[in-house]
What does this fold into?
Amino acid sequence: DVKVTQSSRYLVKRTGEKVFLECVQDMDHENMFWYRQDPGLGLRLIYFSYDVKMKEKGDIPEGYSVSREKKERFSLILESASTNQTSMYLCASSSRGQGRGNTIYFGEGSWLTVV
Amino acid sequence: SQQGEEDPQALSIQEGENATMNCSYKTSINNLQWYRQNSGRGLVHLILIRSNEREKHSGRLRVTLDTSKKSSSLLITASRAADTASYFCATAYFSGGYNKLIFGAGTRLAVHP
It folds into this structure.
């Protein structure tokens, strides 16, 4: 069974803290994604990676950075957390192949509250 | 900017009834996908329909795609309380050298016993 695991389900951080959200997939997928989800706004893409050490900005990259040192792991970093980054963060992965289109598999989400 | 827009934003029905959700999008797509999200959880892929397909079935799910109107619909037949969730359409298109997937804001479905 496919598995995308996010390390933390719930986090509370203080304004200005550096925050790491970790994600691991066990499907040998080339592509990995970080989305944030806010009420009424759906999912918005922050960053994605199509290979180790490669990254591309999504729609809302400001205030975030990412790291992909290994194929199975994709980290989202908030360099200095702010209250407007309070949100649910979803990690996802997909195969580069076209056999299933670009269906993506999601983790369970990480609820981040910045106080 | 959002590519897919779901309609209605919320839907409340009784068990056994059918639920229809609609999705409209703006640009040409490679395929359109529907996902389900239970409260507070991640999204789960339900069904994918390619741009050259008009209708697709999977169990109690029926998806249609009208590329001339840039719209899709998801029909859940004989709904159950367990179908209560949010449903998202996602449009896939090729841009800047990558396949991109853009999600709408979702439809919240409540199925009452």
About this structure: The mean pLDDT of chain A is 91.
